[in-house]
């Protein structure tokens, strides 16, 4: 019987080397920027498609090895909470504000910290950007409902109401889905507000806008978001 060239030890070493190279290549692929999509939770939301992970996720403390160790300790019940994987921290308000903060925002997050908005904070958490704009869901606005204005405006009264059906009547009729038909929440679109309730933007178009569709409020903006926190 003819012996295999190099013997079983040589083939065993080749198998080890091949496994090591494949493992190293896979690890490099998941850690290097080219493999970012591999460990992203989902599709980027509307307008964020060209952003790199580092544009929103700051570097987490510790080395990659230490983060793996911390998560293993958490899995074994020897650490209270998990550590960030892949060296990035979760996104917070400050990360969003680096690109989107502007002086004329109608609903800036800091306003919702006032005591009178405690009920809204409990139900809607509007003081957290990700409550309405959770990332990696491939949409613009991830909040499911469109009638959320009720949480703060159910006692609204206007001395000189400019529309043909008064706000008081709309509130009495609980027509909260009609609010966004005339009002852009952050007030960033330069638009002419309708004075007839019947001419407001239908809720279906608002929902399509939430899903990433064209803006029913027009395309001219008061403010253009910065790119990666830089002026743009």
UniProtKB/TrEMBL annotation:
UniProtKB keywords: Electron transport, Heme, Iron, Metal-binding, Transport
Subcellular localization, as worded in the UniProt entry: Cell envelope
Principal location: other
Ranges of residues in domain Tetrahaem cytochrome: 50-154
Superkingdom of origin organism: Bacteria
MF GO annotations: metal ion binding
InterPro entries, per the entry: Multihaem_cyt_sf, Tetrahaem_cytochrome
A single Gene Ontology CC term: cell envelope
Keyword field contains Oxidoreductase: no
The name this protein goes by in its record: Cytochrome c3 family protein
Lineage, highest ranks first: Bacteria, Candidatus Methylomirabilota, Candidatus Methylomirabilia, Candidatus Methylomirabilales, Candidatus Methylomirabilaceae
